[in-house]
Design brief:
Elements: E1 8-14, E2 18-25, E3 31-38, E4 48-49, H1 51-64, H2 67-70, E5 74-79, E6 85-87, E7 97-98, H3 106-115, H4 119-126, H5 135-145, H6 147-152, E8 155-157, H7 159-168, E9 172-174, H8 175-178, E10 184-185, E11 190-191, H9 193-199, E12 208-210, E13 217-218, E14 232-233, E15 237-238, H10 239-246, E16 255-258, E17 262-265, E18 280-283, E19 289-295, H11 299-309, E20 323-325, E21 342-344, H12 352-374, E22 385-388, H13 395-405, E23 409-410, H14 417-431, H15 435-442, E24 449-450, H16 457-469, H17 471-474
Helix pairs in contact: 3-5, 10-14, 11-12, 12-13, 14-15
Length: 481
């Protein structure tokens, strides 16, 4: 390892499928070491993971970083949002965590919306209309289906909270991740007593919400990580808020993230409250807001279609008449938790490459449809769309987003933006800077820009028409085998 110009910090991304750790020079943003270890997620009706494997993966990822991690002066953890982690009196998991993409709580989500005033009241109070991804619906599902687990629970955490607490020994969270629970009120920036009482959750079981820029704690004696006792620990945040920090986002710049899920978001100085539920009114990690729309089905769904066709994921061909809605795990945007994939317009001359392109088109359609709702009315529509996530490196994804959006598309060269954002948050503890300003100093958005092309309105309208016509079928729960 070459000598660093400034102090070293560690940024962590604990995602659905793996934990990644970066050791970063706080002065330059240069990544001096990295590590990664995988998780397992259950299959079948639910999506669950044992939180203890996140800790094991964090230990492994940091040990891969070698001596650089031992020199770190601060650490921050970004993590998958919404996951429900239930802990007993000893701090051990009561049961596996219910992850964001576990949609079994769809009935509870619908009931909670109705019982607490309807969509508009929810949006005004919490900033969002909760879907089955939200933590509050998972708690309600657990209370109905596993009451013994509820009785054994002495602490409730989100995924990033769990790891931060194992570092510091203190239960903390941040406003960015708390805003995705459904029990944190964006209007008051505090836990909502009415919601908690309604679902039977004692607020004493919840972590303290640490303010932006505040130290969450220090690394305690008892741990298995290569940190010195007293290493500063930043608040951490949810993965989307961390990526926004990693990009150094200013208000109005749109982001489209192509990962296991697909998301579109932008920083706003206005508190969002969309009563349709399309846009989640999340807080960001440094005092503003992060209106966001999310789809459950993105890169994994398209890769599955490619595998079924026996094609490389880049083997697309232009399509004119076939529509594929790749809702393989239900869907969040549009709100169709019981849906399955739908193929319409198949002909004798339809090719496998055209079907694959239709899967890309279907995945991107919902995200771009939500983009105008995410952006403020006065946002500059000519600003390049930042394309990030694993899919952003794929040519087929790039060209599909470019064609269907009609906007210039910029692909930042920086990788692991969630971990970089967490590192920027850790660096901000040391320098006193806004973490987004740290990331801008690191120039994390640098990368090629694809010029705008004329928007493919025909394809967008065709997909919208099929979606509208098929709504009764898509809204019908399907049997799983």
């Amino acid at each position: 390892m070459s000598a660093a110009e400034g102090p070293l910090v560690v940024g962590v991304d604990t995602s659905t499928q793996s934990t990644k750790a970066l050791v970063v020079d706080a002065s330059t943003g240069r990544v001096v070491a990295s590590g990664q270890a995988s998780h397992t997620v259950s299959s079948g009706a639910g999506r669950e993971s044992d939180p203890r494997q996140w800790w094991d993966a964090l230990c492994e990822a940091l040990h891969q970083c070698g001596d650089a991690a031992r020199e770190a002066a601060a650490v921050s953890i970004g993590g998958q949002q919404h996951g429900l982690v239930t802990l007993d009196a000893q701090g051990e998991p009561v049961r596996p965590a219910l992850l964001w993409n576990d949609v079994r709580s769809a009935p509870q989500a619908a009931r909670l919306i109705e019982e607490l005033g309807g969509p508009k009241a929810w949006a005004e109070r919490t900033g969002s209309v909760p879907g089955p991804s939200f933590t509050v619906t998972k708690w309600a599902w657990l209370a109905e289906n596993e009451p013994d687990a509820i009785r054994a629970t002495k602490a409730v955490r989100l995924p990033h909270d769990y790891l931060t607490e194992r570092l510091t020994g203190q239960g903390t969270t941040d406003r960015g991740d708390a805003s995705g629970t459904g029990w944190w009120a964006s209007a008051t920036e505090a836990y909502d007593e009415e919601t908690l009482a309604h679902v039977g959750l004692d607020p004493a079981l919840l972590p303290r919400v640490v303010r932006p820029g505040e130290v969450a704690g220090t690394v305690r004696d008892r741990h298995d990580l290569p940190f010195s006792k007293g290493t500063l620990v930043a608040p951490g945040t949810g993965d989307n808020a961390a990526a926004a920090l990693g990009l150094g986002l200013r208000p109005g710049t749109p982001v489209l993230s192509l990962g296991t899920s697909g998301t579109v978001y932008a920083v706003s100085e206005r508190r969002p409250a969309d009563p349709t539920g399309t846009v989640a009114g999340f807080a960001d990690a440094h005092g503003d807001w992060l209106p966001l729309a999310c789809t459950l089905n993105c890169t994994l769904a398209v890769d599955r279609v490619a595998a079924l066709l026996g094609l490389d994921r880049e083997a697309v061909e232009p399509t004119t008449g076939v529509t594929l809605l790749p809702y393989l795990d239900g869907e969040r945007t549009p709100a169709l938790p019981g849906a399955s994939g739908l193929l319409y317009g198949l002909r004798h001359d339809t090719t496998g490459g055209q079907l694959l392109q239709a899967a890309y088109d279907g995945a991107v359609h919902a995200l771009l449809g939500a983009l105008d709702l995410v952006l403020d009315e006065d946002a500059d529509r000519s600003v390049p769309l930042l394309l990030i996530g694993g899919g952003a490196r794929g040519r087929a994804w790039q060209e599909t987003v470019r064609r269907l959006s009609g906007r210039p598309v910029q692909i930042p060269e920086a990788k692991e933006l969630v971990a970089l954002g967490a590192a920027a948050q850790a660096a901000g503890l040391l320098t006193g800077e806004d973490p987004a300003a740290v990331a801008r100093r690191w120039n994390t958005t640098a990368g090629p820009v694809l010029e705008a092309v004329e928007r493919d309105e025909t394809t967008m309208a065709r997909i919208s028409g099929v979606l509208s016509d098929a709504a009764p079928l898509l809204d019908r729960p399907t049997e799983t085998g």
